[in-house]
Design brief:
The chain is of the alpha+beta class and 196 residues long. It is 34% helix and 9% strand. The chain folds into two domains: 81 residues, no CATH class; 84 residues, RNA-binding S4 domain (Structural Genomics Hypothetical 15.5 Kd Protein In mrcA-pckA Intergenic Region, Chain A), CATH 3.10.290. The longest helix is centred in the N-terminal third of the chain and has 16 residues.
Amino acid sequence: MTKRSITKYHICKKLCNNYNNVWGLPKGNTFKAVKNKRKIRKSYKKLLTIKQSLKLFYCNISEKGFKRLLKKSMKSPLTTLDRFVSILECRLDIVLFRSCLISSLYKARQIINHGAVLVNGKQLKNPGTKLHNSDFIECNNNRVDSITNIFISRFVPSHLEIDYKTSCIIFLWCPNHKSVHYHIKSDYKLIQRFYK
């Protein structure tokens, strides 16, 4: 399992605005944010803030992987942002986080690496595995968080069918940008301009 060089509490400090709750976690898991006081050109600063807020939400993806996925989505005939979000939301760790069975993306990655997740009856240990329509995901009940605390500030998406008694998820379809909820509101359509 890979080791993080920085803690997850450091992520909010990278964002320029004063965000208290990046992922919409319950009250005990919020982070303190520090404003970035460096002087950067306004247009570049705006693009950087938008890119960083989206990249840091999907914290299990490296900068190189994020850029590769964005360039792949630019080549598709669909709208770039819709295709990009659908590629990101099809990842196994993101689906576990969105299902409200697990409180953070770091924990989702950890339980996948430990082999506590089955996809269509097969044990997978890669958190970046791409899911397809009607894939069946099972989680070990011992690894799942208590649901009552997570539901306070989380949004359950419509592209997942979830059974909370057995900790099973059915991935129905790939979502687009409008159907996905982000706690940081930004104009994410500008994200492709950052890499041009």
